[in-house]
Amino acid sequence: MTLDLAIILPTLNERGNLAPLVGRIEEALGAEGWEVLIVDDDSEDGTADEARALALHDRRVRVIQRIGRRGLASAAIEGFCATPAPYCAVMDADHQHDPALLPQMLASLTAGEAEICVASRFVEGSSTVDWAEPERERLSGLANAMARRLTGVDLTDPMSGYFMLPTASARALVPRLSGIGFKILLDLLATSDKPMKIREFPLTFARRREGESKLDRAILFDFLAGLYDKTLGQLIPTRFALFGTVGGLGVIVHYAVLALLLAGMTATFWKAQLAAVLTAMSFNFWLNNWLTYRDKRLTGWGDLLRGWAGFCLTCAIGGFANVAVATLLESRGVFWALAALCGILIGSVWNYALSSRFVWGRY
User: Fold this and answer.
1) Are the CB atoms for 252 and 283 separated by under 8 Å?
2) Which of 5, 10, 298, 344 is deepest in the core (most CB within 10 A)?
3) Do residues 136 and 207 touch, judged by C-beta distance below 8 A?
4) Those residues with Cβ within 8 angstroms of residue 68's Cβ, 6 or more apart along the chain or in another chain
5) pLDDT over threshold 80, residue 283
6) What is the DSSP string of 265-280?
7) d(CA 112, CA 114)
8) What pLDDT, in 10s, does the model give residues 75-103?
9) CA distances (Å), 79 to each of 114, 218, 243, in order?
10) What is the pTM of this model?
């Protein structure tokens, strides 16, 4: 029997969910005509090893273990490029997405009724009763409303993580996809030159079978970063823009701490300045770790402490470069404000390059 459909499962710490999910997919699609492509972000719980163990006895299962790369969107993109199947679906491995919808979605595509099929949590007939996470449901609703307003995508759930389309269509868009964050569907729809014919299927959104969710309150920021990348990302790299924005907020924190300490005359200036610098650096490190490098986020006290120390060292080197460049330019006759701006830019680029390399990644 020919291969018709690839089900791409981006995974991070989903070891216990894989075997039961493959069983549910077989129940929905039958014994042949499909493959499961597990794209694992080097999970600490041995998800990739479990996927390989399944593949030893089931030729329908394949695995890509990614080292130094993270993010659902980029994992889906690698899946698009790795399968020969004419159709591909993207779904979560946590059992919140019902595989029973796969045959209906595939039939709709092969019949020419749609160019992309989306399982929606909010279309008529769907249900989120078992989700039991009202805060995440509110965040998803807000992000969906923003997506419809800003992109004109006429969908009840443009932030859905469960969809299916012809693989050739996905691969044709890959060179222009941002690959940022978690919302690959919105990226596909926003990148397509012409509106895609869409059909939505009501989804009963279930509880996670086991493990912990990887999404948090940063999901809305992640969504905004994706929109920025689609509009201005060609001019200024998205991660650098986020890094610079965090740095700007750090300046505000610096002056706030400095003013607070000096207001009561309880500290000499150098002591207050030192406290303000350390506070601003710590704030910048925390916010960058939570938002800018969300896909490479450091966890655990040991990693966080080493990351903070590395970030402070990086910023100290960048600060020296800032002062050195600005002083040199000013001594050569450059207007002081322009010289200072050049120093800030040099220091920012230096800090960004070093922290990206040595704090949040080996690559």
Assistant:
1) no
2) 10
3) no
4) 42, 361, 362, 363
5) yes
6) T-S-HHHHHHHHHHHH
7) 5
8) 999 999 999 999 999 999 988 899 999 99
9) 21, 25, 29
10) 0.73
